[in-house]
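dumping this here so i dont lose it
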């Protein structure tokens, strides 16, 4: 039996609705533990007309058979809070509780619904995002976000870094570390070795050093070292044409946030999944935010969440092979 945890995210956002929208896709042979406010999820079930059945538990260690379980901390004063410090506190509290259970082995994979960084920070959350929190909580220093879809997969060398600081962060050792992580984790999680395309940093991938030295002095040496070890890696690719070769690569390593996220969201916005690699357990999340503007109107598209759940179930299964 697989044990999957699902966090509610920010209850003022689309997270509660998305949990209810994917509820009917839960497998009969799996235990799903939802970390969230009971009153909020019942309100979402009523909004969507979903017949929501579950068993309340006080701890994940008590889940010993397939089914749907709910761990309710009863934090929120209202079933549907406004975007606020209160909603940020709820999001952070359930994330923290679920991560403890994952670290202790009570759940084998984690699907996190979106939180809002502004309100989470004001509720005491001191991390750029959920990925960084997961890394800290699991004492992991070598990790990455994979933007994942069937059509395109992207890993970022740098994540939430101002653009002006990116060139100084592009170092041979960092590129090597990220490539080693990618090959190691894809072998562990998927049982296969990917073909990786590495994008250059500068226009025209630096034009052999005439338009920036990072491509020839930092990125290329790392690629050559990996090639010499037998890994399937190519680059530095010219950034403005790299994604025209989408069928040639299983995954792209991009130097900064928008270099990878703009093409990914153009090609896979309605099915994009955020996969964290490097931490001890699989974690996925729909690749979008809290969407306050459409929350609690019955408009949220469940496709990214369903894709995130399907990928998580696959990875939990793979790790048991």
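and the seq i came up w/
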């Amino acid at each position: 039996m697989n044990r999957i945890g699902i966090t509610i995210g920010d209850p003022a956002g689309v997270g509660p609705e998305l949990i209810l929208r994917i509820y009917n896709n839960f497998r009969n042979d799996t235990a799903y533990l939802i970390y969230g406010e009971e009153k909020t999820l019942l309100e979402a079930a009523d909004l969507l007309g979903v017949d929501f059945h579950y068993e309340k538990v006080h701890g994940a260690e008590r889940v010993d058979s397939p089914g749907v379980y709910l761990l309710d901390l009863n934090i929120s004063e209202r079933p549907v809070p406004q975007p606020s410090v209160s909603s940020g506190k709820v999001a952070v509290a359930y994330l923290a509780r679920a991560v403890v259970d994952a670290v202790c082995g009570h759940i084998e994979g984690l699907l996190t619904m979106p939180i809002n960084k502004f309100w989470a920070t004001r509720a005491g959350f001191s991390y750029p995002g959920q990925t960084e929190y997961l890394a800290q909580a699991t004492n992991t220093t070598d990790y990455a976000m994979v933007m994942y879809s069937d059509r395109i997969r992207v890993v970022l060398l740098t994540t939430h870094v101002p653009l002006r600081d990116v060139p100084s962060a592009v170092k041979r050792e960092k590129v090597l570390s990220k490539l080693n992580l990618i090959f190691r984790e894809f072998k562990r999680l998927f049982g296969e070795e990917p073909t990786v395309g590495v994008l250059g940093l500068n226009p025209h991938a630096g034009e052999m050093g005439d338009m920036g030295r990072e491509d020839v002095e930092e990125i290329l040496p790392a690629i050559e070292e990996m090639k010499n070890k037998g890994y399937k890696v190519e680059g530095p690719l010219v950034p403005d044409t790299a994604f025209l070769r989408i069928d040639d690569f299983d995954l792209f390593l991009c130097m900064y946030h928008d270099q990878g996220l703009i093409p990914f969201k153009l090609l896979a916005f309605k099915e994009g999944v955020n996969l964290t690699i490097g931490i001890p357990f699989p974690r996925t999340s729909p690749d979008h935010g809290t969407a306050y503007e459409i929350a609690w109107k019955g408009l949220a598209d469940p496709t990214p969440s369903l894709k995130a759940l399907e990928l998580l179930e696959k990875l939990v299964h793979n790790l048991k092979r």
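The chain has two domains: 1-141+274-321, 151-270.
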